[in-house]
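User: My collaborator sent over this chain with a note saying "see what the structure looks like." That's all I know about it. Can you take a look?
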Amino acid sequence: MPRLDTRQAAVYYLLKVLRRPASRTEIVKMLFLADLELVRGGRQPLFRWIRWYYGPFSREVLDVLDALEELGLVSVDRVIDIWTLKTRKIEYRAVEASDNALGVLDDSVRLAVERVAERWRSRGLEELIRYVYSLPQVCGKKLGEVIELE
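Assistant: Without extra context I'll predict from the sequence alone. Here is the result:
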């Protein structure tokens, strides 16, 4: 089992503690909230964020998800629209693996991820998006503008 870097471990841990499949949009928004928790605690954010069509976005999160898929640590379910044959939704789920993969996570990252997962595990995507859009770090940002968390 390869040892993950901090960002890979944080994303994998989020999926593990959610205990359910999560869409890309959910994962991105929850990681944004985890980064906010880290910054409030005096830590550096894990990802760089910009304002995009559905709020805060980081291409780095998608790159990490791709890497986790290649490592076999997440299963991916692509929901295809039967009329257009285009992917309508992509959901990820953590595959059981050795906790050794998570050894790189320090307590502050682990706690931030757990808090976000606990709060949003059973809530809907629309509520999550509304909440994230309401945050002062996101409000008023133009499309493509960098979101500074520090």
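A starting point for your reply to your collaborator: The chain has a mean pLDDT of 91.
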